[in-house]
Every structure is written in C-alpha cells, then in structure tokens.
Amino acid sequence: EVQLVESGGGLVQPGGSLRLSCATSGFIFRSYDMSWVRQAPGKGPEWVSSIDSDFGSTTYAESVKGRFTISRDNAKNMLYLQMNSLKPEDTAVYYCAILGGDWGQGTQVTVSS
Q: What is the pLDDT tens value at each position of the chain, 113 positions in all?
C-alpha cells in the first residue's frame, strides 16, 4: 500500500521559514518523480514543485521560484520542501505526491502575523 505522510506545517509569520517532510512507503521511491502540490482555501490545487528520479532535476512554479527548494533522500524514502521568505499567499494545505499518482493527506501551512 502506497503511503505518503507529510509533516512540518504550522503557523509562521511573513518572511519566516518552514521545512516540510514527506515520509513514503509502499513503492520504490527512488524510481518515481515526486511533487509538492498545494491547495489554498476556496481554490483549486496548484502545482508547486517537482523533482525527478534520475538526476534530481527540479522545477518550480513561478510563484515560489527562488524561495522554495525541493529535495529528496532516496536512502530514507523522504521528500522535502524548504520554504523561505514565506508570504500570506503561501497559506495552503501542502500535499506530497507521486507525479501523476497518489497524494498524501496534506499538512497545513498558515502564514500570518
């Protein structure tokens, strides 16, 4: 059974940082491209970032480029999202996802003073 469990969300002030983690199991993690997706209140899902399985190449939405960093540890089956210079518009539930496949349950990130 595929499992994706996010953690690390919370309440942070504008300009602050958070690091999201995603613990995975039930599939060969190192063989899959992975993504982070977010959904803000009242809005549809928004792709945030992806990292490929072969070379760790990364891509980012324009809205987060330069502020967020996606990474993976294939030895630990873990996916990460380092989020810096957070803005109120980054407030959303953040989901770890197999690219084109399963999603986790999400972790809430709230950016507010």
A: 999 999 999 999 999 999 999 999 999 999 999 999 999 999 999 999 999 998 889 999 999 999 999 999 999 999 999 999 999 999 999 999 998 889 999 999 999 99
Report how far residue 7's alpha carbon sits from residue 98's, in angstroms, rounded to the nearest whole number: 16
- Residue 64 corresponds to which tokens in the numbers above? 């987060």
Query: For the purposes of burial, counting CB atoms within 10 Å of the CB of 1, is it exposed (0-12), middle (13-18) or buried (19 or more)?
Result: exposed
User: Is residue 97 a contact partner of residue 49, using CB atoms and an 8 Å limit?
Assistant: no
Q: Fill in the amino acid letter for 23.
A: A
Query: Residue 48, Cα to own-chain centre: how many angstroms?
Result: 7
- Residue 30 to residue 10: CA distance in whole angstroms: 28
The sheet with strand 58-60 has its strands ordered as 10-12, 107-111, 92-98, 34-39, 45-51, 58-60
